[in-house]
Design brief:
368 residues, alpha+beta, Rossmann fold, OB fold (Dihydrolipoamide Acetyltransferase, E2P), 6-stranded mixed beta sheet, globular, ATP-binding, ABC transporter ATP-binding protein, ABC_transporter-like_ATP-bd
């Protein structure tokens, strides 16, 4: 296991980058704690696979260093870093049995035969392939082969880190849930440092202790699922996390009041006057419909009943506002206003969250 330090790290695929826009991975400084499970979360092309490949040694960064337990491994090949990596699509030895595929990393390092047998049996049970151990990999389905890849990545107990690059893409939905649970169980059992790349927020939030949200080559927030939900450090985090995502509305902020299209909104805390593009962000869970004439004037466009709650889609001038209402909530035609819980309103300037006066950001929730 290893603490992973990213020191002044950045990467460009261009030979002579001239500006920040030329970098696929913007400058990053952070310590990833030994033994924690991290998820790199973001849309396609945001830089998460680039970062993972730098950590694994498949890619050499344009600038900066990467350290494992304070040892500089920037120029070391993948084999010298003592990691296990599982890729998006299955990589297996078709001519080998499932048993031999799982045993290969251990045999390659001269492990004791009895230990190999016990460990392979344990991993096979974990991935649900005890009955296929003596089958050749060639005839198996794509999702079965990917389970072998996952098992082979997990079979070694002595690795510095386990790296997963969208490993459940070819796995059927029911098995995805089971394998995420097993990966979490493995982490609790052995305490490996794990880094899991995904564009799926459900995978990230259910797997990780800390989620690293990336946008346009930059890490915009590192935090627990609760921190990402309650205090998104960037409007992209608010938009990307949650279903539906955070409502973001242009506003003028003065002290503890926001002015939105002429309507006053209580912010519940005081703010200095932010510069640049100013917006407020409110989760649909903290918005409520009203018919008493207070709040922002809206026009309900449709109501989606998703079983456990209702999603109200409404228009406010040129903006869409989403409201989550209770499963049994009655939504009348006279409900033409929406109000927000002041304690759950976030203020943003140029897309970055502004702290209320007299408070400080939690280190875990800060952008790196």
């Amino acid at each position: 296991m290893a603490k992973i330090t990213l020191d002044n790290l950045a990467h460009s695929y261009l030979p002579n980058p001239q500006s920040e826009d030329d970098y696929a991975l913007k400058e990053l400084n952070h310590d990833w704690v030994d033994g924690e499970a991290y998820a790199l979360l973001g849309a396609s092309g945001c830089g998460k696979s680039t970062l993972l490949n730098i950590i694994s040694g498949l890619l050499h960064p344009s600038q900066g260093r990467i350290l494992f337990n304070d040892r500089d491994v920037t120029s070391e090949p993948t084999a010298a870093r003592n990691i296990a990596q599982v890729f998006q699509f299955p990589v297996v030895y078709d001519t080998m049995t499932v048993r031999d595929n799982l045993a290969f990393p251990l045999r390659n390092r001269g492990a004791d035969a009895s230990y190999i047998q016990d460990r392979v049996q344990h991993i096979a049970k974990m991935i649900g392939m005890e009955g296929e151990l003596n089958h050749k990999a060639r005839g198996l389905t794509a999702d079965a082969k990917q389970k072998i890849s996952l098992g082979r990545g997990m079979v070694r107990e002595d690795v510095n880190a386990l790296l997963f690059d969208e490993p459940l893409t070819v796995i059927d939905p029911h098995m995805k849930w089971e394998l995420r649970t097993q990966l979490k169980s493995l982490h609790h059992e052995f305490g490996h440092t794990m880094i899991y790349v995904t564009h799926d927020q459900t995978e990230a939030l259910t797997f990780a202790d800390k989620v690293v949200v990336m946008y346009d080559g930059r890490v915009v927030q590192i935090g627990t699922p609760q921190e990402l939900f309650e205090t998104p450090a960037h409007t992209f985090v608010g938009y990307f996390i949650g279903s539906p995502g955070m409502n973001v509305l242009a506003a003028t902020v003065d002290g503890s009041t926001a002015y939105i299209e002429g309507t006053e909104v209580d912010l519940g805390a005081g703010y200095s006057v932010p510069d640049g593009k100013v917006e407020i962000g409110v989760r649909p869970e903290f918005a409520s419909l009203s018919s008493n004439g207070t709040g922002l004037p809206i026009k309900i466009r449709r109501v989606e009943d998703v079983g456990r709650h209702k999603i109200v889609r409404a228009d406010f001038f040129e903006n869409e506002i989403n409201v989550i209402a209770g499963e049994g909530a009655e939504i009348g035609a006279d409900m033409n206003r929406v109000t927000f819980e002041a304690a759950h309103i976030n203020v943003y300037a140029n897309d970055w969250r502004v702290e209320p006066m007299g408070t400080q950001a939690s280190p875990a929730g800060e952008a790196a």
